[in-house]
Design a protein that fits this description.
This protein is α+β, with helices and mostly antiparallel strands. It is built from nine helices and six strands; from the N terminus they run βββαααααααβααββ. Helix 5 runs antiparallel to helix 6. The longest helix is centred in the middle third of the chain and has 29 residues.
Length: 225
């Protein structure tokens, strides 16, 4: 179970506090009000050039925009949410047309500690000669991969519904996809269905190619088709 983290902006510092109100540490120092307009103009112009000229991969350009935008911190509140809205907009402009159909916000919300850790690791170096993009870029790309996987799972579930599979069969296929492999006993425990009914549904799903059967007897298990 993750720990709740509260982020507070105090003038030029962004600090993190735990659920008990104890300061965890300064995440990074933001731009001053005098620096913000110039830095935002520079960031927007740089990003526009990268996305138009494709001198670096669009995903890298978008990742770099996000971390610098959050380091500038142009608004008192809402910078994180706005950065994710801008990320979606830039991904759409870079022809990643799937992004509106799966929530990047929910992916980050489920991995909040990893998000802040990666952000902190890169932003601590952003004003130094040895800037380290790797922590944030890796986190960003993994979050996009998870977003895409969630969309694929959603499409698969809808595909199963369209093909009029029974509710229990849909639940079995979703469980197999989430876990990688299941046994009859596990399906019975998870669904509460009768064992013989579960066996019939498993046999039908194997025959239709939705899942695959492995092993024999008590060692039998089912995986993705």
């Amino acid at each position: 179970m993750g720990h709740r983290v509260l982020i507070i902006v105090d003038w030029y510092n962004v600090a993190a506090f735990d659920a008990d109100g104890n300061e965890i540490g300064i995440l990074f120092q933001t731009a001053t009000p005098f620096e913000t307009p110039r830095k935002m103009d520079e960031l927007i112009e740089w990003t526009r050039r990268q996305l138009a000229g494709r001198t670096i991969h669009p995903l890298l350009a978008i990742a770099m925009f996000t971390v610098v935008f959050l380091e500038i911190h142009p608004f008192q509140d809402g910078n994180g949410r706005l950065s994710r809205i801008l990320t979606t907009l830039m991904l759409l402009r870079a022809d990643y047309s799937y992004v509106p159909y799966s929530s990047l916000e929910s992916v980050i919300e489920n991995e909040k500690e990893g998000y802040y850790r990666a952000l902190r690791q890169t932003q601590r170096t952003i004003r130094s000669p040895s800037l380290d993009w790797e922590p944030w870029v890796l986190y960003f790309l993994r979050a996009l991969r998870q977003q895409k996987r969630l969309l694929e799972a959603k499409i698969e579930r809808e595909h199963l519904i369209i093909n009029a599979l029974p509710a229990l069969s849909i639940e079995i296929v979703s469980t197999v996809k989430d876990r990688g492999r299941v046994t009859i006993a596990e399906v019975v425990k998870l669904t509460g269905a009768n064992r013989n009914t579960v066996k019939k549904h498993l046999a039908a799903l194997v025959a239709a190619g939705h899942i695959s059967r492995h092993g024999k007897g008590k060692a039998t298990w089912y995986g993705q088709g």
